[in-house]
Design a protein that fits this description.
This protein has ten helices and no strands. It has 263 residues and is mainly alpha-helical. Among the domains are: 55 residues, Serine Threonine Protein Phosphatase 5, Tetratricopeptide repeat (Alpha Horseshoe); 52 residues, no CATH class. The radius of gyration is 29 Å and the shape is flat. It starts with a helix and ends with a helix.
Amino acid sequence: MNYKYFLLISILILFVFNGCIATKQDLLNVNLEVRELRKEVIGKLSDNINLNIEIRNEFVAEIEKLQKINADIRDNIDNQVINIDKLGGKVEEGNYRFQDIKFNQEYLDALDKKLAVIEDKLFTLLTSTNNIVNQSYSLSPEQIYQMARSDYSRGSYDLAISGFDNIIKNYPDSSFGENSYYDMSVAYYAKKDWEKVNDIIDIFISNYPSSQLVPKAYILKTKAFRKLGSFEKAKEVYNKILKDYPLTEEAKIAKDELDLMQA
């Protein structure tokens, strides 16, 4: 860092102006001071990382609260619809219920819009924060991977995908590269983006054909095909699993699924 070089130059200039020659002990003392300064800076950087993570978690917690409110209101509307059906001929009370539902629906629509705006802002902020943290503080592939897994567990699939993509692009040869491909496909499956699931799995298998995760990836691929209504393609993948990976647990799953499809 620039301040270390500035410190060293300042000390050397001081020695020259005083007509002194730095002794070995003097240089050792300077080295010790530089090391102490380096420790102090690293400590401050670590504090900044922790602060960013705390802010990140607070935003995620707020989103989860809004999502719970959203779900509660939807449950309330469902219950009121059931109540209206039970009222039958009680028109006046039915009209009252209808107006109540209309109000709740309008409130719910407004809440949905606010939630969408907040989620977009949060995703932009956290993606930016992740990039700044990763670039400025040199997080390890393992740390980035664990953060992405944590985002997936919270249901923040876009953030999780962003983290896995970071590892794939910047640390493809790390031990977390192939896991990130597979976990990214799982995240897209959770988002119900079946086409993207198949695209990611194809790239994964092309890059890591010998990975132990390949049979699991093929099983996930069959699920995506079935969601798309492509049952013949799913059968082809099941047969490939039986042929290429006959001794795996996935082969047993493939056989069972084929039996059910042919029954």
